[in-house]
TrEMBL record:
Ranges where the record places region Disordered: 581-603
Principal location: membrane
EC number: 2.3.2.27
GO biological process, one term: positive regulation of TORC1 signaling
Gene Ontology terms: cellular component: cytosol; GATOR2 complex; lysosomal membrane
Species of the source: Neomonachus schauinslandi (Hawaiian monk seal)
Pathway where this protein functions: Protein modification; protein ubiquitination
Start and stop residues of the WD repeats: 116-158, 203-245
Keyword Repeat: yes
Name of the protein this chain belongs to: GATOR2 complex protein WDR24
Annotated localization: Lysosome membrane
Alphabetic keyword roster: Autophagy, Lysosome, Membrane, Metal-binding, Repeat, Transferase, Ubl conjugation pathway, WD repeat, Zinc, Zinc-finger
Subunit composition and interactions: Component of the GATOR2 subcomplex, composed of MIOS, SEC13, SEH1L, WDR24 and WDR59. The GATOR2 complex interacts with CASTOR1 and CASTOR2; the interaction is negatively regulated by arginine. The GATOR2 complex interacts with SESN1, SESN2 and SESN3; the interaction is negatively regulated by amino acids. SESN1, SESN2 and SESN3 convey leucine availability via direct interaction with SEH1L and WDR24.
Amino acid sequence: MEKMSRVTTALGGSTLTGRTMHCHLDAPANAISVCRDAAQVVVAGRSIFKIYAIEDEQFVEKLNLRVGRKPSLNLSCADVVWHQMDENLLATAATNGVVVTWNLGRPSRNKQDQLFTEHKRTVNKVCFHPTEAHVLLSGSQDGFMKCFDLRRKDSVSTFSGQSESVRDVQFSIRDYFTFASTFENGNVQLWDIRRPDRCERMFTAHNGPVFCCDWHPEDRGWLATGGRDKMVKVWDMTTHRAKEVHCVQTIASVARVKWRPECRHHLATCSMMVDHNIYVWDVRRPFVPAAMFEEHRDVTTGIAWRHPHDPSFLLSGSKDSTLCQHLFRDASQPVERANPEGLCYGLFGDLAFAAKESLVATESGRKPYAGDRRHPIFFKRKLDPAEPFVGLASSALSVFEIEPGSGSMSWFVDTAERYALAGRPLAELCDHNAKVARELGRNQVAQTWTMLRIIYCSPGLASATSLNHSVGKGSSCGLPLMNSFNLKDMAPGLGSETRLDRSKGDTRSDTVLLDSSATLITNEDNEETEGSDVPADYLLGDVEGEEDELYLLDPEHAHPEDPEYVLPQEAFPLRHEIVDTPPGPEHLQDKADSPHVSGSEADAASLAPVDSSFSLLSVSHALHDTRLPPDFFSALVCDMLRFYAEQGDVQMAVSVLIVLGERVRKDIDEQTQEHWYTSYIDLLQRFCLWNVSNQVVKLSTSRAISCLNQASTTLHVNCSHCKRPMSSRGWVCDRCHRCASMCAVCHHVVKGLFVWCQGCSHGGHLQHIMKWLEGSSHCPAGCGHLCEYS
């Protein structure tokens, strides 16, 4: 969408007038260049090579330089440059390695002038000398740079960077003989055109390829470079060694960089991929661009300021087949949308707060924090009168410190070192960690560990002595508490109904209600029970026993040392048929009220076996199981872990995650777990808890975490005899054919833990060396070195 702002600039008699506009090209553009009078622009690409006139309202095509019946690779341009001294002279870099010059003053349709075919691979960049009309410099993918004299048919000098491909070459504006070149290995070289044998200076500027560079038009020694590491760096080349004076962090690889005219600290950049916008940066504010142009819909391939003394007009070409003129007044300003406040905590509790200085100044009653040991630090940048952004806000930064001792992180270190994360049963891990947290005064964390033990650990087994009458001969192991029935522990109402009182002669109900789901027990006329000498008030046991092994329920005959009676899981083998269907309560009540049944018979009938209608009480599972399965609490445990993580206690979240393992890991997504692990490991490494950090990495099941202690871990071993590097196979040196890991004390091969002196390279078994150094400080190998072991 075009913006209708218009700017008129007077430049020494000529006037620049225009607005934000664009035109559609026939093909994607690779590079653009502007003539010296700022009235025309040339656009070059693989399938386009045209010159456009820049008018007030639009671009007008003036000349198509792709002429001929058949297409030629010489016209497939990777770069183009317009000479700033001769308005009729152009040069292009072709993808087939040819450097072509063009003379617009020729009367014929074909404007091609000279061809230089000395490069073997694609030419990435061409550059005219700023003051010498006949000097042309090129940089190629073959790693060579060539200087051409247009009055001759071949190059006059060849410069070898002894490196990979050359990505950019630029003549210095202030130094007649100096040019800079950038390479794909991250190096920048400075050359003198009079000395092609070696460079004057070389330094590593970026981590990765350096795609572009540009000399500052005013400051003689400033060189801006951009690379694949998403950074733009400004170097001061006037010092003995190149000094980085500014660094701008962008969001994508930097493809082009151009200093803004008349603005000492401004430069424009475009990206090689991903980001389609053009940014203008103030190098003193490296994280927020001063202006942004968003007209292109594909990668911007070329940028150029329209006039070397006009900061208002910027031209650009893109792969979206458009040519644009950007008016600086119409650019969006990200600074206006940026958040002017910031808050950050330091590792040891320091608090830093930044805000607009105007906001801080209006708070006349503002008092510094009581624990502030340092005076607030204020940063204020003096505004440059040449900058159009007069409203840039300066920030005030205040740094506070909490009360001494209150921000101590000793609890974190103690917890990390004392926590047990593996190697024990779950119950022991939870109890141990709860004890550690309680000793450190972290009661909430201790309670959390206790609750986790209750949720995920099954109840313990009772011992044989804790159960009354482990029923059955030879029974040596206890029964599970949840599967036993203890009469003493029952509710008072339930116990009063189960115990039979022979002293009372009143008629009682024959019904014993054990539980809402329990079987109701009654009795009918049973001659066998009535005529038996065995008391009817007995408890059915899990036995195959005789009658003398039955336990009385009569309190008068009960053993005083056995006050509790337990109903086992199953009764002894019955001598009659068992009917599983119990009668209803009505039938039981009728039998209890029958005049044919005496009180003693009713008492005995409550536990007496029946012939055909009713079943005996048989408990095969927990009568009253109140325990819920652990999966019932999974959502609650996950919420608890997220709560601790959100509170900043990733130590607790990761520790529980490791201890519980698969019980809870499946309910938390992998990305969240990885974030918790990396945060905790980072904290451990900040406190130099390397062993704990390595243990957490080892116990992690996340692939991204478990590989942390396997990457970038290389052990270089040299032979102790010839001092040459050892191969990765065996203990024998490939060069001197001697065993490298010989113990200097016992003279045997060390195949396990090996300790050596870094001074003389001799060593051996750990125990042998320790014992030797207890009595002597000299090396056991006899080399005379004074070895130390600490």
